[in-house]
Amino acid sequence: MPVTNKRRPTIHDVARASGVSRGTVSRALNGDPYVSTAALAAVRRAVAETGYVVNRAARSLVTQRTGTVVMVLSEPQEKLFEDPNFSVLLRVATRRLAQRDVALVMMVAGDDGDRERVVRYLRGGHADGVLLLSAHSGDPLLAELEGLSIPAVACGAVLGREGVIPYAAADDREGARQMAQYLVDLGRKKIATITGPLDTPGGLNRLEGFCDVLGRKAVKKLIAHGDYSRHSGEAAMRELLDRVPDLDAVFVGSDLMAAGALAVLRERGRRVPEDVAVGGFDDSAIAGSTHPKLTTVRQPLEQVATETVRLLLELIDGADAVESLVLPTELVTRESA
User: Is DNA-binding one of the keywords (predicted)?
Assistant: First the structure.
């Protein structure tokens, strides 16, 4: 018995079902703000009833848009799955873009080959804009993006391009000041820090905030560097304990690195917080699952992602410029300090 393909609903079907003109349906589906509330509701109801699906290819011919935004993570692929911050940013950005019927494509640019693929994709006109995640200063991808003249916004400032690439970010420096001052107020005398990469705003600005409070006490031997991974937190903590066995506090530049630091302190027989107080940064899900639970600095990641998407959509919609913004952090005290 032959199978008959069911005819796909068209915009004409939606117009008939909604009782408005085809032009009104088209304007409603394309987000025209001048469509009345009643007409918009009728179109949405008709779309649901008919099962109409917007033809993105046809729409792009009219609007000159792809309906797609690319999120570029400038880290090795494994970090996407290890660091819980990235999943929060990805989830929120996907949801916010979906509200505008914009799809999100995730691309990793952790090495030269990855970066070339990203550039080829963007040069091919497959996206309306770019969300930058964990961008490093000096990344050659940044210069390529400027040459493509595609709207781009960063989650966190891009060092050296703060006036070129707009961004939404947490106040990393002030958050680090909050944690460092808290450790000082606890009476700790030898306070160390484990930084993130210093070519990222989180790495550099959190170190600067730490030094703002510690001043001359922020000596080189009390500073170790990581890359936001748990493994790097372990390695940096071992390095600090070998250099300064009697340190009594450590501010770690991310919760994931702090989890690694806590494991090494247990391994070396140091009690937390009795012997060594530990503070993190992020207030990710990790902070509530460590032993002891982690005192940390909460950065408003969901709000950062929301604002980053808002800025990018404004640029895509034709804004000449948008204003970057920095959001406040909050100290969250638990058991580790």
Answer: yes
